Amino acid sequence: MTDIKSVRGALRNQWIETPSWAFGNSGTRFKVFTQDGVARNPYEKLEDAAQVHRFTGVTPSVALHIPWDRVEDYAHLAKHAAGLGLQIGAINPNVFQEAEYRLGSVCNPDPKVRRKATDHLLECAEIAGLTGSPALSLWFADGTNYPGQDDIRARQDRLSEALHETYQALPTGVRILLEYKLFEPGFYTMDVPDWGTSLLHCVDLGEKAFVLVDTGHHAPGTNIEFIVAGLMRAGRLGGFHFNSRFYADDDLMVGASDPFQLFRIIHEIVSAHGLDRSANVAFMLDQCHNLEPKIPAEIRSVMNVQEATAKALLVDHEALHAAQAAGDVLGAYAVIMDAYNTDVRPLLAEVRTEMGLDPDPMAAYARSGYAERIGAERVGGRAAGWDA
Amino acid sequence: MTDIKSVRGALRNQWIETPSWAFGNSGTRFKVFTQDGVARNPYEKLEDAAQVHRFTGVTPSVALHIPWDRVEDYAHLAKHAAGLGLQIGAINPNVFQEAEYRLGSVCNPDPKVRRKATDHLLECAEIAGLTGSPALSLWFADGTNYPGQDDIRARQDRLSEALHETYQALPTGVRILLEYKLFEPGFYTMDVPDWGTSLLHCVDLGEKAFVLVDTGHHAPGTNIEFIVAGLMRAGRLGGFHFNSRFYADDDLMVGASDPFQLFRIIHEIVSAHGLDRSANVAFMLDQCHNLEPKIPAEIRSVMNVQEATAKALLVDHEALHAAQAAGDVLGAYAVIMDAYNTDVRPLLAEVRTEMGLDPDPMAAYARSGYAERIGAERVGGRAAGWDA
Amino acid sequence: MTDIKSVRGALRNQWIETPSWAFGNSGTRFKVFTQDGVARNPYEKLEDAAQVHRFTGVTPSVALHIPWDRVEDYAHLAKHAAGLGLQIGAINPNVFQEAEYRLGSVCNPDPKVRRKATDHLLECAEIAGLTGSPALSLWFADGTNYPGQDDIRARQDRLSEALHETYQALPTGVRILLEYKLFEPGFYTMDVPDWGTSLLHCVDLGEKAFVLVDTGHHAPGTNIEFIVAGLMRAGRLGGFHFNSRFYADDDLMVGASDPFQLFRIIHEIVSAHGLDRSANVAFMLDQCHNLEPKIPAEIRSVMNVQEATAKALLVDHEALHAAQAAGDVLGAYAVIMDAYNTDVRPLLAEVRTEMGLDPDPMAAYARSGYAERIGAERVGGRAAGWDA
Amino acid sequence: MTDIKSVRGALRNQWIETPSWAFGNSGTRFKVFTQDGVARNPYEKLEDAAQVHRFTGVTPSVALHIPWDRVEDYAHLAKHAAGLGLQIGAINPNVFQEAEYRLGSVCNPDPKVRRKATDHLLECAEIAGLTGSPALSLWFADGTNYPGQDDIRARQDRLSEALHETYQALPTGVRILLEYKLFEPGFYTMDVPDWGTSLLHCVDLGEKAFVLVDTGHHAPGTNIEFIVAGLMRAGRLGGFHFNSRFYADDDLMVGASDPFQLFRIIHEIVSAHGLDRSANVAFMLDQCHNLEPKIPAEIRSVMNVQEATAKALLVDHEALHAAQAAGDVLGAYAVIMDAYNTDVRPLLAEVRTEMGLDPDPMAAYARSGYAERIGAERVGGRAAGWDA
């Protein structure tokens, strides 16, 4: 039987990181639709992120994207965050938006470009130290579009070199999270297309390098929870970039396309004790709210993760293992579905009340008037971001 | 046996349309990399397209994108084209790059937005008349990102209404080509996601509406040549937007990812006499040269289509039908592969020489000095396009 | 607001058809695992189907597969069904398990084979008349494995001819349901691979031909509810073969892989009044219980459909349309998710009690002792089926 | 410049292994079509394999499947092979065709089943020693169909245990090849679904364990040549099971669906010197000739691999590297395509003549009368295999 008290405790202690870039404009290659009141600089992004934490109580950290969030004084930015009740989360170097990176960053055939890109990684490692960030979160847009365009193995060697140099420069307490992605913007190869490639580099680097799973970065049909279980077993799951997709890297709100899949992923996490703070699995959102307003979209996303987590926590593991051991296929499935089919919204409302929060974060945010205020105040200016 | 004389004739008479937008900057949502010497306005785009025709001899028409190619005087633009030895091809309305289109254009729940979008279609129909274009080529970015976001059937009704109004306004000699696309920028639904939906609207509209097949717009595993054969059989194949992809709508050069697939598609065309001018099948390129220089990329793409066509023309249909009738699986496959495995580059070199062209278009273009000239001359200015 | 009384009514009146072949052995190409007590002939299959109806109350008809369910006296079989409280549902001709069909049935290049296959369709049309079946449900394993193996268009012509002959022979009250499938057993082409191809044939045949949607027969990423909505709009949705899949035509229990997708499909049905008996949409299961016991697997599948239906019936359409009209993306999504996140099991338990059934069909079946009885009684013999 | 003499040498020395099971009946879950003259036992399979070697000269070894190829005296079987000019290739244990394996073999929750399965692996290791086989080639049909059915991580532990026990028992000179497969027959999880999982086990086992790449076992869109390049770089590419697919694990003839992909894969092999005998990369066919006659299908498959290899050997690596280093995207692509577009059939005909073979293996086999002879002689009997 599930211990409801520990379920409540786990829900209260959940930690989900929001990304600063979710509060800036985003879009597709066809159009970036701008929104009224959108944050214009890192300080405003933190203020928006603080709203998400204010109404959900479980998003105390914010990931940064450099150079989108570049400031003169990072200590000052971290202090601003602290004043908002927030910590700085993972630092995400951006090595894809400059002209030099047309043929890649750390994998570029040109050593000068690789030097520039690696220097940016080193700068970000330093920023991690300055801001108290626990992680350097690396995603490379590097890849190729045509067969023969570059040497696949040589690019791995170049990647390895840059990673090693960065790894050596990690400040104390900072680890590397290495993300993989099947395609886009590389349409023939990506230099880190799958978890296996990421893992090979992490193992080669050392004990402070972990695989980052973005839930939208797989080929159709890939069983993500299997990957998660395998990485937990190998001790190399660094964390998640949560979002959802029907097709490719659609970057929709997590849980929007397939809430059962999200539940199954978190079930594997729960089964391997990955919610424990000691497991050091980072739960980060990474979404593009192209059509929907950004702050409520982040709140809704957090709630989707909370609901999936609550359901996963309700799985009766004793009954499940008994059915599995007995080879009772329908019985084991029933245990899983009993948890999934439970309406956990009342439970979460109670947990929120226990935490001193409004039981309905969406309604509470809507009533707060924050959206109207930023719509009126934030006129003019434009943040670096997807439409940079 | 294949009649080599008629093969040569068919290759000399091939007609491939280039798109004006291929000569402007393009990119992904991550970055639009600008290129030196890129065309800055519709006139320069036509001049670049004329280079492709100059060296290949088979690209006498150019498709326009409105408003990217909007000019004061369309008759003047058409005359400029004629002076370059070109005709204006399909007119492509763009109803996805304005703020009002955030939730769709002709399918938008707001009737004012639908009105604006339909008016643009009508404007484009008029431009088709003014420029002597044979076709209004319609692709709608309309769709939704989340379940429930809008009513799927209501959107079809709205689409139908706009299409009918446009159809009624078609100038003489102009037909509608209705393109479909599985996803992007809509990540839950697209309003015309597949050939079946396009066909339903075309049949409903009348005899001047045809399905447009973009080779990059299908789900993984879709057999495109089967669709092509079926549309030919139904008399509703309007033409192609050629490009290639390994993953999604990657918009790589046609034939780059799977030259055998391109050959099989054209084999179905040839088998159904679709290369005949009377079949009225439009062969149009629609690609994004994000990394590679644009004019040579278009030339190379044309050559890829020519090579696939030459191979398809070499298929020994008599032997093929005999093997098929006999149920000789390996024999029929061998006939197909004999044609595909033939190196048709010498044949195409001869055909080019017969046409008074250099046998090696890529080398001839490189020698021409055109790239260097536009690199030096086209400084300043910026064309409307993907980076608009 | 949703009218809970009409929801209950709709749930009581739901009609789901079970397939006789679900009660026989099934498997993959690697192995057909036999189960104790499995039905050995059509009479026993009906008896098993009656158990599903006994405990769920919503499965009053059973589809047959011919020749797997061939008997001497079909009127007698129908009478046996009636005695069990059942009707005969769709008749499913099988034209794929004889040596002659190696290169296809009605699309075979050999006219003798086509004659044999068409004769079997005619026999099945007759059986439909004899058994009171409302539908001839056609799925063709026809296709090819290699490019060039056969002529794609010629095969369509042959298919059309066989369909027309069959259509002419339909007994009064019998309609044709034409199923499509992307691949398997054809690995290059299938002759009816998609809904568009099926629809073309149905429209050509006449008003008694409808498209059958098997939920496992699409390319990855296909939006099935969009197809369903479009076919409803076109008046050509004949019904469903329900099952679920993570990869290909996995034939798992419906709702097992993606319960949210099943909900979205039924939401489109409900939105277009497709649950009304007058809409004539057939809800049929078509699954292979390779690992799990068959009768409880069918019961569980029925329950999964019921739960998805209950959730779809709970959608607040008024609120949904208001949010859609306002362009409120998150609001519309919230309406959908409110229904989906509801735990409808208590509601369904009440409905079952109202119907005089046990509120927990799985437990009631388990207690009934039926499984033990057939395990003991059905020894020896072997039914025609997947392992034929 | 490419050295044509070394190209010829490489082609003469190519070594492709045929599988005994290609010469038995095969099919889909819908139907196994039997063929006249099909081999009825391991001895006859070897005789058929000898025909493939006789006409191609590059298939001197044959993989066995146990128990399909179980004999009393393996030394005698190996001697029979030697008498036919053949060696015994990889030994393939089959742990999926017995009733006990319904819920898995070495991953089964029941320790008794695991014991039985592991014992079979040990038996096969012994057979490898007895027959002089260089490899134990392991593929596990193990997996689950439903979420919750079994514990993903526990199954990995069980797999690891069985692999370690087998590894310890490897005879001298025998290595383990561990194959992965995305799905089928497991439709929710497979226990070794991807190269990463296989690699984790291989690294854990030791230096005699290598990853086996079956070209049909990936998710749609997977870049196989990238995996191949990465495994070569990691020193863990054991070899290939060659076949081709348009959709899933279709097991069509290699090169039939996408000859350009096959070329790209072999280009990576050539680039990393993987054709050298010292690289110890095994090139094995693994196909199901469901519709086509088996011996000529194997010959054709061998020819397809030879043609792809010849093209890959013709790549001008010097020019390629120069273009890559210069960032010349179109130039590098042109180098690749120059090789691919070459008609290598004349070159291969010459190489065959040099080897004392007929330049046209298909025609020579057809003329040999072997097909007619086995059709007449092999009457009665039935080999264990796909239709077992």
Can you walk through the features of this model?
4 copies of one chain form a homotetramer. Chain A has a single domain, classed as TIM Barrel (Alpha-Beta Barrel). In chain A, the strands form 3 sheets. An 8-stranded parallel β-sheet of chain A has the order 5-4-1-12-11-10-8-6. With 388 residues, the first copy, chain A, is an alpha/beta fold. The first copy, chain A, contains 14 helices and 12 strands. Chain A is 45% helix and 13% strand. The model of chain A has no long low-confidence stretch (mean pLDDT 97). Chains in contact: A-B, A-C, A-D, B-C, B-D, C-D. At the A-D interface, helix 5, helix 6, helix 7, helix 8 and helix 10 of A face helix 5, helix 6, helix 7, helix 8 and helix 10 of D.
Describe the structure in brief:
The structure is a homotetramer of 388-residue chains. Chain A has 388 residues and is of the alpha/beta class.
Task: Please write the CATH class name of chain A.
Answer: Alpha Beta
Largest sheet of chain A: 8 strands, parallel
Shape of chain A: globular
Annotated CATH topology of chain A: TIM Barrel
Derived from helix and strand composition plus strand pairing, the structural class of chain A reads alpha/beta
Strand order of the largest sheet of chain A: 5-4-1-12-11-10-8-6
Question: With helices defined by DSSP (H or I, 4 residues minimum), what is the helix count of chain A?
Answer: 14
* Unreliable segments of 5+ consecutive residues of chain A: none
Rounded to the nearest angstrom, the distance between the terminal CA atoms of chain A is: 52 Å
Structurally, the number of domains of chain A stands at 1
Question: Assembly type of the shown chains?
Answer: homotetramer
Report Rg of chain A.
21 Å
Strand content of chain A: 5-15%
CATH superfamily of chain A: Divalent-metal-dependent TIM barrel enzymes
